[in-house]
Q: What sequence folds into this?
């Protein structure tokens, strides 16, 4: 077993991150089986990688996890037999009653406890996703380059600010489309969470 080759070609490091071909995988795993000292070396490298990752970790956007959870929940609902539904697309003529069929569903209600944001997907295609979303405090600055975001306020109120200067004060029944390439943030201005119908539609960048 050529242990010098394994070290010189950084095969242990590449093995950990998955940057090895099938022949190299076989070579490393055979070496780990035959040479106990390599197992210790592998564990030390893994530990170093973990420490490096922790030291350089980036705090995720607070909206990332809630949106991921909505997709996981929606997938589970479909697996359980729920038929896909297709809410009307949001536009300047949209009304709250257009979404009554989803707003009245007992399984798509606001939970008793959640952090800053919670949502239910009510329709999803390759082009667009529609959700019922509750915001306790708002949402931080973000900019969309390939996705059109639209809001219809159902309950509560909020202020959406474009580029730190243009403010839109929204109440139930109000609609707003977010322009592409414009930084925007949301601040809830009501005593209750702001409940919205949110649409994200893919568009050309």
A:
């Amino acid at each position: 077993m050529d242990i010098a080759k394994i070290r010189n070609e950084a095969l242990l490091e590449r093995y950990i991150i998955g940057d090895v071909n099938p022949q190299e995988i076989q070579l490393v795993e055979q070496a780990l089986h035959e040479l106990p000292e390599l197992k210790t070396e592998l564990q030390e490298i893994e530990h170093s990688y973990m420490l490096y990752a922790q030291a350089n970790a980036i705090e995720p956007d607070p909206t990332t996890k809630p949106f991921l959870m909505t997709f996981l929940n929606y997938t589970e609902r479909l697996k359980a037999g729920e038929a896909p539904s297709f809410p009307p697309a949001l536009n300047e003529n949209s009304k709250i009653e257009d979404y009554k069929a989803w707003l009245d569903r007992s399984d798509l209600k606001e939970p008793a406890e959640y952090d800053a944001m919670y949502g239910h997907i009510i329709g999803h295609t390759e082009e667009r996703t529609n959700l019922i979303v509750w915001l306790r405090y708002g949402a931080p600055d973000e900019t969309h380059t390939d996705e059109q975001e639209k809001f219809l306020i159902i309950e509560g109120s909020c202020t959406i600010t474009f580029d730190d200067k243009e403010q839109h004060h929204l109440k139930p029944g109000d609609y707003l489309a977010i322009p592409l390439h414009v930084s925007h943030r949301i601040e809830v201005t009501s005593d209750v969470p702001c409940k919205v119908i949110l649409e994200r539609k893919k568009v050309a960048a």
In short: The chain has two domains: 3-55, 64-202. The mean pLDDT is 91. DSSP finds six helices and nine strands in the chain.
